[in-house]
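Notes on consecutive records. When two proteins share a document, each keeps its own sequence and its own token line. Never mix them. Below: protein one.
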Amino acid sequence: MELGARLMEDFGIEVILDEWEIGGGDNANLFMNRALKEAVRVVMVCTEEYVRKADGGIGGAGYEANVMNAEVVKDQGGRRFIPIIRQSGENAAVPTFMAGRIHFNFSDDEKYEESLEKLAREIHDARPFKKPKLGKNPFLGESNQDAESAAGPDGDSPDSDPLVVYKKALSLANAGDFTGWRDLIHTQKIAAEAALLLWKKENQSRFPNLRNELIEYFRPAVEIYGGLFAAAVAGIDSEDPRFHNQLSLIDWIRKPQGWERSGPTMWVELPDLVFFTYQAILGAAAMSRHRPELAYRLATTPLENPDNYRESKALFKSRWAMGWPNSLDHHCTVAWNFLRTLPGAWEWLSKLLRSEQEALASIGAYYLFLNTIDFVSAVKSAKRNGSDLREPVVPLGVVVLSREVKARAKSIFGESADFFAEVFVENGIGIEELEPLWENWIHVCLKWIGEVYRDPILLRHVELPHSTLPRMIKGGETNLQID
């Protein structure tokens, strides 16, 4: 408590501490989960007893350690977690899952003030020794090395490998370097727009005649934006929450400079197919990293209607944006099959989302998330109008995934159960009425699937991975209104 008070009063650092935040009747586990998600930095005070309980899974420290272990895994390569040592022995110890992290030693009371200032500087990213700025290479043009490098304002060629862009974007975001971030994003945008125009020029004369050929035809065009996609994922992975929201790229993606707005619809609206892919990857990354609040922000962001720019709808209600892109013949099953091919075709995407199967499961979990937001909207509409639940807007292609991938998608989605408990309460859906409403919704969704797929074998074994959501719910509250 003294440490928290000093950080707040003397160094201007907002501190979340259970003694100040919760009391009798509060849910301590929910508080720990929420605090870990909200905090920009997490300070772990490692006493001998805490380390023993954390490693042994004992009591509140053991529960907290299990939760933090998952968070630390997501934070690998980041600096969000800061262990500090407060111990009597000479051999400083930290919980096993924090091994290898640089720590601050608060064990010597005589050096407490010095240690406190070092910690505060670290939290404020105000370390006394600054890395000098990189100067220009005086031997530029004389090297035999390949000239391909990340673009900057001096005009170098932009990186074409999304994994390279991801690493550079993550480094810039973790350093809080907005100028470098904007330069990287701007360079990737300019390069992508030029490459897309070139791709169109080279390929528009061989437009496919069959619907099932559209996936292979358009996928290389969409991958041109792989660098921007990877940078957006880096924003989500950043330890700086100011980079988490990458919705500002929407207009850049949907309205590339020099793009002709006349001709066949499949060509004209190719940028919307790029955005469809972008939102799926961004949503999958948010689910993979267990950040439902970012998936929610994406799902509910308003988008202009391509056919009427005076009208806007939330993403989860915009069919063209998340399920029926016109470049894929305005067909939800073609669009879903397009998404299913991406992890296998784009190795960099599988690596960003940990593996091909994990990427597919994360995409599936995101669409289960969208479908649940859709459920809330449908319930509120039915209550207002005194009508039955409408059919879903969000497509449910997740049902065609393999059993193993669906099981993993359910597990990833299940991480958002507490989040949805809060959404339901905030939107007037009581826990006691949730189960019958959800059962009705699953029935409506299965009926929709039957009408869309008309596949007797599929329908005989069809199951929606999130059908047991009411049993996952624990409860909570927040400001998450859905229209």
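Protein two starts on the next line and is unrelated to protein one.
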Amino acid sequence: MDATPDLPLPAFVVVPAVPFLMGTPEADLSDLARRYGGTRESYREEAPRHEVLLPAFAIAEVPVTNALYAAFVTGAGAPAPLAWRGATPPAGRLDHPVVDISLDEARSFCDWLRQQSVTFRDVVGNPLAVRGGPRLPTEAEWEHAARGSDGRTFPWGEVFAPHCANTRDGGPGATTPVGAYPAGASPYGLLDMAGNVWEWTASLDRPYPYRPDDGREDLVAPGRRIMRGGCYANPHGYTRCACRFRLPPTVRNEFTGFRLAVSLAREGSKV
């Protein structure tokens, strides 16, 4: 089925099933405190660094935009973000990431999109064989997509560069159009993985090492969920690929957005 013309869906990037380095080495925690403030223990939640292997998946190249979310508000009668004028996004911001979105609202959007006649496509326009419909990425999927397999600090490398991300260090102090910082692309070509808006993940706030089978991916369990990426109001330390933040699923504010992920159909299976 082809995408409905009035749904401005993002392109999706396939992330392969290869081992990647997740988290921060314990030996680096004191240095993080010196660089970014706090104490060594402030960064304990990122340790230890460990190798993770996930099935291949696909993730949206950019966060969900106001334009796409507006189709949900209109089509499903969903509540609009507080800054909108009714069902209309702010003028001139259709291509900005939607903000003021709670985890529960992000999930409702995914449920709605699952019911639409859409085809998810890769960055060159090829249709993807998916199973299960759109969803939020897990914390591990998000980190793999952001930093690649080599454990780099930022999506583009080891050293922060203001022209690579919309942060307090050089951004306009507000959201920017998705994809406005192409120099900040991740190894797989993902954009806006650092700065612009915090992005919800599906994962519960649990300590490392990451294990997908230990209950942290229980979609109905109560508890705070992990957010990733930092936002336009944060200094760049929050945009490190390993940085973890968490909020209750009902919280929404001017910094919270999300991007989509899909599971890929196994070869030979029916979709």
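For the record: Confidence is low (pLDDT under 50) at residues 1-5.
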